[in-house]
Design goal:
This protein has about 475 residues and is an alpha/beta fold. It has 16 helices and 16 strands. It folds into 2 domains: about 170 residues, Aspartate Aminotransferase, domain 1; about 270 residues, Aspartate Aminotransferase, domain 2. The strands form 4 sheets. A 7-stranded mixed beta sheet has the order 4-12-11-10-7-5-6, with helices on both faces. It has a 4-stranded mixed beta sheet with strand order 1-2-3-15. It has a 3-stranded antiparallel beta sheet with strand order 13-14-16, with no helix packed on it.
């Protein structure tokens, strides 16, 4: 669909291609001063997430005024390539004309109505579409507002199911070493990232973490597949001994995000599905970050040709526009709650469950996937970025360069203790939004990224590495 906005954006791309040097482009001192003032106001009024606020004394938050495509523009008029999709949510660029139009249309109809006793066309249509595109019999959608809430729903749903089935000892959960599932108390219980978890340990339920199949931990000469199978053997040993007390195994399929984009072979998912079936344990897949094409297929579990018992989705579900999440369950789970007795109902709720505007944004997102053949287009883009990234992979400071679909990552061999912060600030100076996880730099760009922008991303990252190394 060609719009006037898209035509102008294509002109911008051509101009970018003719000048591939990322530079700061201050408009005028008055705008720069206004931008700095906004940053200072934010420091005084906003408690920013995942942030040590004292660090903003030296680097105030950057005020963003608008966005278009892969670009963010600050209040001073400078542009930044959003290489991390604004925390992995934005799929089709900022200010996408298709999603914008859907939201405007829905605003004139109904913005929100509670789903307890009511329903509406957008939530019905979205649920039907999700049922069509997800694997197997995931036909029942329970909505919330964010990824962690979807995880809470999945954990409660699994626990409650076994109680209804009379297997009251199945109350435990197992997850992967280094897995991340969110920071609410239930989600944090099944998370294994110490910086998020250790302070709140007294508030959390115990959870077992089995060895990760992340191939970075493989022995020298051991293939990713062989290492994944070895990790699956450890899962089998655990379930063989503890299945009677285990409700579910929850994991991030193919890519463990907050652990530094740890990637692994899909054979692990195949084994996990077989083992969960054998030992009567639910398999919960957390595709909040990796769903909707991030790993190269619409869903990561497609690469293993398996169906989970519960599938959690969020982030890209609305194209990154609005907070919406969903936990999708099989008919077997759903039927256990279907009863004349209110006590057997799944009594869980969120005020904005199935928000109509969020559902319309999600439907528009799915329309773009279908109409523009996004999965195939992404394969071409990923191949191009991999070709031009060979010089990055060969950099003396770069280790474990890796790719899965539209996710790239590598470790930087550096003694800098504040590397993540330094890289982020250096990225901004070069017009790039990079947010390293420790010493892991990653790219998760919006799918609308084009070749000139990919050139800028790789060249700018190389320059940043050279600068920080010096």
């Amino acid at each position: 669909m060609i719009t006037e906005g898209n035509r102008i954006y294509n002109i911008i791309l051509k101009n970018i291609a003719s000048n591939r040097t990322l530079t700061m482009n201050k408009i005028n001192p008055d705008q720069s001063a206004a931008s700095a003032q906004l940053g200072q106001r934010s420091m005084q009024a906003v408690w920013h997430p995942c942030t040590q606020m004292k660090q903003h004394e030296n680097h105030p938050p950057l005020p963003i005024a608008r966005g278009k495509g892969v670009w963010l523009f600050d209040a001073a008029g400078n542009r930044y390539l959003d290489a991390v999709s604004s925390w992995w949510v934005n799929l089709f660029g900022h200010s996408n004309s298709v999603i914008n139009a859907a939201i405007r249309d829905q605003l004139e109809k109904i913005e929100h109505v509670m789903l307890a006793g009511f329903t509406h066309e957008p939530v019905i249509a979205l649920s039907e579409r999700l049922k069509q595109i997800t694997p197997g019999s995931l036909g029942h959608c329970f909505y919330a507002s964010d990824g962690a809430s979807a995880i809470e729903i999945a954990l409660k749903m699994s626990f409650h199911y076994w109680q209804l089935c009379g297997k009251t000892h199945k109350t435990g959960f197992v997850s992967l070493q280094n897995d991340y599932h969110g920071e609410t108390l239930g989600a944090l219980s099944v998370t294994d990232v110490a910086i998020f978890k250790q302070t709140y340990a007294p508030l959390l339920r115990p959870c077992t973490h089995v060895p990760t199949p992340d191939w970075r931990y493989a022995e020298t000469g051991e293939s990713a597949e062989a290492f994944a199978l070895r990790a699956a053997d450890a899962l089998e040993r655990y379930l063989a001994e503890n299945h009677a007390q285990t409700a579910a195994f929850i994991l991030e399929p193919l890519v463990q995000g907050a652990a530094g984009m740890g990637m692994y072979h899909p054979v692990y998912l195949q084994r996990a599905r077989l083992l969960c079936d054998r030992y009567q344990v639910h398999l919960i897949l957390d595709e909040i970050a990796v769903g909707f094409g991030r790993t190269g297929t619409l869903f990561a579990c497609n690469q293993a040709e398996i169906t989970p018992d519960i599938l959690c989705l969020s982030k890209g579900l609305s194209g990154g526009y609005l907070p919406i999440s969903v936990a999708m369950a099989t008919d077997v789970i759903y039927q256990a709650f279907y009863s004349d007795q209110i006590s057997r109902a799944f009594l869980h709720s969120h005020s904005h469950t199935g928000n109509a505007i969020g559902c319309r944004a999600a439907l528009a997102t799915l329309d773009i996937f279908a109409q523009d053949n996004i999965i195939e287009a992404n394969k071409t883009k990923a191949a191009y970025l991999n070709r031009i990234a060979t010089k990055l992979a060969a950099h003396g400071r770069v280790k474990n360069f890796r790719n899965c679909g539209m996710i790239w990552a590598f470790e930087v061999d550096t003694a800098m203790q504040d590397f993540a912060s330094a890289c982020f600030q250096a990225g901004l100076k070069h017009g790039l939004v990079l947010r390293p996880l420790g010493k892991t730099v990653y790219f998760m760009p919006p799918y609308v990224i084009e070749e000139p922008e990919m050139d800028l991303l790789i060249d700018g990252t190389l320059h940043i590495l050279d600068t920080l190394s010096a």
